[in-house]
Amino acid sequence: MNEAVLMIHLFSTLFLVGLIWTIQIVHYPLFGSIGENEYRSYQRLHTRRIAYLVAPVMLAELISAIYLVIWPFGESGRWPFWMGFVLVIMIWVSTLFLQSPIHGRLSKGLDLRDVKLLTATNWIRTVLWTTRGFLVLWLVWPGNGG
């Protein structure tokens, strides 16, 4: 069971690492290129569609992180699982208290300051998820934990 959960954790984390880099480098910077007349509709569609993609994977990552903290295994001890869990919580906090409110404001209309703020604050999640990606890869490396 632990190995299956670790594989779910690995998949969900690496999927989110790739997605966050795409969002950070391509998607968010392009928000400012959308015309003001089309922007509100675009933002609503973006928020709805990205939620279908991100929400289940973020939940899988969170649930598997909780599982691995409660039932750690391997030779690495508990610390990498706790570190990974703390990083997940930090990502959720950033999402809920930084990026989501900015998306809420942007749903009312294009504001280039908010686009820049969204792109800037999203570096927090980009760094955290990238760190998680390296940590999870380290965990599955033979002899470390997986």
Task: Note down, in words, how this protein is organized.
It is a single chain. By secondary structure, the protein is mainly α. It has one domain. The chain is 83% helix and 0% strand. α2 packs antiparallel against α3 and α3 packs antiparallel against α4. The N and C termini lie close together (12 Å). The mean pLDDT is 95.
Q: Short description, anyone?
A:
The chain is mostly helical and 146 residues long.
List the helices and strands and how they pair.
Blueprint: H1 2-30, H2 36-70, H3 79-106, H4 112-140
Overall 3D geometry? elongated
Number of distinct beta strands: 0
Please give the share of residues in helix. Answer: over 70%
- Quaternary structure annotation: single chain
Which range does the strand content fall in?
under 5%
Please report the number of helical segments.
4
In total, how many domains does the architecture comprise? 1
**In terms of per-residue confidence, which ranges show pLDDT below 50 for 5 or more consecutive residues?**
none
Category from helices, strands and their pairing: mainly alpha
